[in-house]
Design a protein that fits this description.
Length: 207
């Protein structure tokens, strides 16, 4: 069809046109970059600052966006059900994620030390902790343990999703945990994981 239009313009008006210039270019989605489990472990264990350790553990352990971390309230933590409620995340939709067992004692120690009143992570003046401060903490902690590539809060979220997928977690469950509207957004992680086929069991092995 496009070729016919181009040919028509050439024959009738003696003009060459480039119709493809009128079509928007498809956006190229960059593949997520993630850290290894060993790198994450080194980051968490390298700091003695309870607040820094808590924020790194939350970002990675729950797959949070930076804004979601900063918006966490004390009331969002449910230690009985072992869940965390993420309110008004991207798309203004609430969701519930798991509270990792290793994170609960850390949160309790953090609470005893800092005694936050409303926001889980509070700044020196009692308001919300700043996004810039979190970014600096992540960057400095990564550099301290010898990670040379840029590390951001979102890279910890990418690492969370990738490691879950590598561990055999169903991709639709990962979609819910990340708060993705479309499964296609989550499926991008299937392009960067190296899931060993030797871990996949044939139905014959269950007979």
């Amino acid at each position: 069809m496009l070729f016919a239009i181009v040919k028509f313009y050439k024959l009738v008006f003696d003009r060459e046109i480039n119709l493809y210039a009128y079509y928007p270019k498809r956006q190229k989605h960059k593949l997520p970059v993630y850290l290894s489990i060993n790198e994450i472990h080194r980051m968490i264990e390298s700091t003695d600052n309870l607040k820094h350790k808590t924020m790194i553990s939350l970002l990675y352990g729950c797959g949070l966006r930076l804004a979601e971390l900063l918006n966490l309230r004390l009331s969002d933590i449910n230690s009985n059900k072992m869940t965390i409620t993420i309110r008004e995340s991207k798309g203004n939709k609430d969701r519930v994620v798991m509270l990792p067992e290793k994170l609960l004692p850390l949160l309790r120690d953090y609470y005893k030390a800092y005694k936050p009143k409303f926001w889980l992570l509070e700044g020196q003046q009692g308001g919300q902790y700043s996004a810039k401060s979190v970014q600096i903490v992540i960057k400095k902690t990564a550099a301290t343990v010898g990670i040379t590539s840029p590390v951001t809060p979102h890279k910890l979220r990418h690492s969370f999703a990738t490691h879950l997928l590598e561990n055999g977690t169903d991709i639709r469950f990962i979609q819910e945990l990340l708060g993705h509207r479309s499964i296609e957004t989550t499926e991008i992680y299937t392009h960067i994981t190296d899931i060993s086929k030797s871990k996949i069991k044939s139905p014959l092995d269950f007979i």
